[in-house]
Protein 1
Amino acid sequence: MYDADKRKILSALCHGAIFFSTTFVSVGLPIAILFISDDPVVKDNAKESINFHFNVWLYGGIIGFLVWITLFLLFPLAIIGYLLHWGLTIWAIIRVFSNPDQPFRYPLIFRII
């Protein structure tokens, strides 16, 4: 049996790591937790968080490029993307605290890991 409080905290840290920064540094926390933890739910949450980081970078690059080439006419698209990124992360943290025995799955993302 795994400790539910430890599972909640580690899973929330995996998903919340993206709040630390959107750079490559923030993905280090879920990667570390993936290798350190022996809890299968925490490992699944870490993998999902790593995949979400990759998606945020991919979509952020695409949106940033589109905003730049349209001379900032698509700037509202960047704001929507940013709000979606934060909203999904907050949703993930709430879900891992409310249901710690089930890993959270982000909708509509590419899963590499």
Note: Residues 33 and 46 are 7 Å apart (CA to CA).
Protein 2
Amino acid sequence: MQLSPIDRFRLARGFFAIARDPRNLDGVLDLADNIAKRENAFDNVSEELRDEVMAFEGAGVMPPPEELRELADGTLGREYVRFMDEHGLTPEALDRAPEDGNQLEVFRAHMRNSHDIWHVATGWTPDLLGELALQAFYLAQLRLPFPAFVLAAGMLHVVWKSPRHFYEVVDAVAEGYRQGREATPLAPIQWVKMLDLPVNEVRDALQIAPATQRPEPVIPLVA
């Protein structure tokens, strides 16, 4: 991908914005999406991911939160909505798939919208440690440069602001990458078909080793 000088400047500014405050990640994700839309759709996509994108049949319609709350405890849908409730996240904050977009744009919206389900499926919490471990999982599975960009900025933040957590975060990043290498590719999964299954069954089916749990958040990102 050939970036214009202004895009390089914006990405550099975004990198240091994440390094200063990882809660700036949403803005940098928006910037990356906007840049990607101006480039050849598949310039930076591996052959394996290109095949997954072209075979993607759509994410399906996620039931409203009130329906998910009626599911049994321990199911993917119930734990997903619990995750959303506990961290103040709402479906309205998610991207809508473009009605007239190309296959990659639809797939990209699916990936953004399923981010929190990946948290539940993998077991990573929404603190900085968990977010960086999940980015390592993305890197292992998708072979795209942007997760590495986020990882580098996040690790710089840890070194700069929270050095006492450095080795703990490094261990989590290594674990997340290993998880991603061993798991079934999650990008094309239609999660709506698995919402009533216990999380443990979903993990077994997708060969996901659950993340190591920690007693408290490591560098919290949400209130």
Note: The radius of gyration is 17 Å.
Protein 3
Amino acid sequence: MNKNIDENTLRYDRMVEKALRGVAKQAIEEVMETGLPGDHHFYITFLTDYEGVQIPDYLRERYPGEMTIVLQYQFYDLSVDDKLLKVTLSFNNIPEKLVVPLAAITIFADPSVNFALQFQPLDGEGGYDDDPDGIAEAIAELAEENEKSSKPKEKGEVVSLDQFRKKD
């Protein structure tokens, strides 16, 4: 913890992070209800080694630190709550369920309107990953689904966000 911050200091940094993550969560909720309007689509970057992230092993091996997913044309079973984002995406025509704690998300972008948010990973004090029950349930559910799948896994493709980052 910063030397200048103690338990008697209001943590505006954490408040802002939580509020901005709420924007991303609300956008996903709206898409769950009505679908993606117009040309909107989301690029979501997350830490693959963050506690509670559930992705297939071949994706974790290919993207050991960070991965970007695109929610645009083919995604299924999209859901979000106060802790987790869940979505099924196809990688080389093989559907894979991904479970990502909101606290693991580092970038949320909608390039169609030139909108992007960059986050700092939350450390348990931000309100998203304090209660691991939702994560444990998601882990168990994903493990069960992966056991049922006997197909060999192929590698998917992840899009780089460099083209959307501001150039200095």
Note: The longest strand covers residues 84-91.
